[in-house]
Amino acid sequence: MSSLVAALSPHYAARMFLTFRSPSRYVQGPDATSQLGRQLQLMGLTGPALILASAGSRARSGSLWAESLAAAGIPLVVHEFGGESSQDEIDSGVAAARASGAEVIVGAGGGKTLDTARAIAGTLGLAVVSCPTLASNDAPCAAVSVIYTPDSVYERLIFYPRNPDLVLVDTTIIANAPRRYLVSGMGDALATWFEARTVAEARTPNQVGGLTTITAKALARLCYDTLIADGLEAANAVDARAVTPALERIVEANTLLSGLGFESGGLAIAHSVHNGLTTAGPTHAYLHGEKVAFGLVVQLVVEGQSSDEIDTVIRFCRSVGLPTTLGGLGLADADDDTIRVIAERTVAEGETAHNEPFGVSARMIADGIRAADARSRTMA
Ligand SMILES: [Zn+2]
User: Fold this and answer.
1) Catalytic pick from 165, 188, 230, 373?
2) Angle CA(117)–CA(63)–CA(137) in degrees, nearest 5?
3) 79 catalytically annotated
4) pTM
């Protein structure tokens, strides 16, 4: 995975410091897109701005961006995102940013758009703004990009020295996206507490190369409690395309709490299982958080956590529609070879599975996958 974590020898790890980091500014609310120019101004960002956006985002928000940035006196170009967070897309965005003399890169779209926007800004050393149009994962606040091959296989992570300068979340847009995306974000956010707890207890490095602060642990716990309290109501609000207080709290949990929680709290088996699952073609039809949710059940099983805890997690997943079985990820007929490849990828060198307080082998993960699947299938 990361050169950062790989570089942390046991000797260095013994001298790690408590470390926490975050975006400079987080803004969330209905119709927040109309505030983009004003918020850039408040951050002292004068442009020109390059907005990396999907065709859909551009169609929906293009005129609002133009109006809002013009009012703030910030020149703007829009560069269309091709769909995959890949090196090709990064290269294309870097060329467009250079051609337009951009001083700030704004990503407007889903997680892959934002990952690519960060990589463009990181390459050029520019300020970066995340405008997520989905609350489907914990990427918008992070100082890391997940890079895939052009055919959607997980490839590597790129780490940046700073988090995004601004994260601007328009909850009207989130409320108008399909329920599945919000629910997937809940799957990603659901793992946050359990992974942070593991990393804190194991005193292994968090995702920013330090030890987990009590601040990050508390935020991760708040993330979990918010999901349990408001998750179902927020999903139902999205079905009605309604912005409600429960939806606002879940958007904040999926985006801010989950983002701060995974970075400064840390990652463990759940996210490594996600990475392992991407080696199986049928899982490409499923979202990040859907794979993380199943990965979390695997983590809890491999850790030997209590039946109560595992059942609570599985019941929450079922209530909102997150997969907790292989069949739920298109792998109902997965043979032993498929599971073995997933498990081997899960424990590849540098994977966060190795943040557990015990040694983790491919065999343990394969057994955990089979056991998690059986438990979920047979649970009343
Ligand atoms: Zn995640």
Assistant:
1) 188
2) 35
3) no
4) 0.92
pLDDT of residue 255: 97
The rounded Å distance from CA 60 to ligand 1 centre is 26
- In three-state form (DSSP H/G/I as H, E/B as E, the rest C), the secondary structure along 44-110 is CCCCCEEEEECHHHHHHHHHHHHHHHHHCCCCEEEEECCCCCCHHHHHHHHHHHHHHCCCEEEEEEC
Give yes or no for residue 342 having a pLDDT over 90.
Answer: yes
Region 236-258 average pLDDT: 98
Ligand 1 centroid from CA 139, angstroms: 7
Calculate how far, in angstroms, residue 67's C-alpha sits from the geometric centre of ligand 1: 33
| 354 part of the active site | no
Q: How far is the CA of 108 from the centre of ligand 1 (A)?
A: 18
Write the pLDDT tens digit of every residue in 120-179. Answer: 999 999 999 999 999 998 889 999 998 999 887 778 889 999 999 999 999 999 999 999
Annotated active-site residue 239? The verdict is: no
- Taking residues 253-267, report their average pLDDT: 96
d(CA 103, CA 122): 12
Architecture field, domain 25-175: 3-Layer(aba) Sandwich (3.40)
> For the domain 268-380, what is the CATH superfamily, name and number?
Dehydroquinate synthase-like - alpha domain (1.20.1090.10)
User: pLDDT averaged over the chain?
Assistant: 94
CA distance readout (Å), 103 to 24, 73, 106, 164, 273: 17, 14, 10, 14, 37
pLDDT class for 14, splitting at 50, 70, 90? low
C-alpha 150 – ligand 1 centre gap (Å)? 20
Active site residue 271: yes
Domain-wise residue ranges, the chain: 25-175, 268-380
Active-site entry in 79, 115, 274, 354 = 274
Mean pLDDT of 198-211: 95
